[in-house]
Amino acid sequence: MAYSIEPIGIIHSPYKEKFAVPRQPGLVPSANCEIVLQGLANSLEAVRSIEQFSHVWLLFLFDQNLEAGWRPTVRPPRLGGNERIGVFASRATFRPNGIGMSAVKLKGVRHHNGQVIIDIGGADLVDGTPIIDIKPYIPYSDSLPDALGGFASEQPPTLIVEFSLNAQQQLSGKKADYHRAVITEVLAQDPRPAYKKGKSDNKTYAVNLFDFNVQFTVSEPVITVISIDTINQ
C-alpha cells in the first residue's frame, strides 16, 4: 500500500548545498533558520501554544536524495567512511522513504501578512528542505540519559578555525559577527570527506553559506578561511 505525504512548510537556512551541512542538529548553535508554513498548516491555530516548548522535533524529506534511491548498508563518516553498517543503524540521508528528523531549538513564532513563520536554531537542514511535520520535544520522555550511542556516543572533535586578513576584511556589515560565528562553527566540524582526515591535504575547498562562497584550506588541527566572496544573485 502506498501513502502520500504533503510538506507543511519549507525551511530557510544558511546551508545552500549539502556540503558542510552539520551532520547532526545542535552542532552549529549560532545558525538561525526559519520554517515558512504553507497550505492548511499556514495557520496561527496550528501553532497555538507551541511556544510553551523550548525545542521541537522536525520531520523532513531528504528531497535532494530521493531519486538516487537507497541501499541496505551505508558507510558512516564517523567510522572513517570505510566500514559498512545497516542503514537502520545509521542516520544516513539515503533511506527507504527519505525521511529525516532533528531536534532543534524553538526561538519564536511570527505572523506577517498572513504568513506564519517559525524561528528555530541549530538546525542541520539544507536551505529549501521540505518539512513534513513538527512535534514538541518532551524532556521526560525524549531525553534518555542512560541510552547507548553506539559508534556515535561522543560528539566528534572539532578543528580550530582561523580567518586570513583578506577574509576578515571581506566580512562586513551589521551581520558580520553572526556570519563569522556560523562560518566558524560549520567549518570547525571539518566538512571534508572522512578519507581526507588525518592526512596531508593541499586542496582548497569551497562551500556556499548564506550568500557567500567561503574558501578554506586545512592543515590539521587548523582550518584557514582564505576568502569570503559574495555570490552574485
UniProtKB/TrEMBL annotation:
CDD domains: UPF0066. It comes from Photobacterium iliopiscarium. The keyword Transferase does not apply. Belongs to the tRNA methyltransferase O family. Residues 5-146 form the TsaA-like domain. Keywords: S-adenosyl-L-methionine. Pfam families: TrmO_C (PF18389), TrmO_N (PF01980). The lineage of its organism: Bacteria, Pseudomonadati, Pseudomonadota, Gammaproteobacteria, Vibrionales. This is tRNA (N6-threonylcarbamoyladenosine(37)-N6)-methyltransferase TrmO.
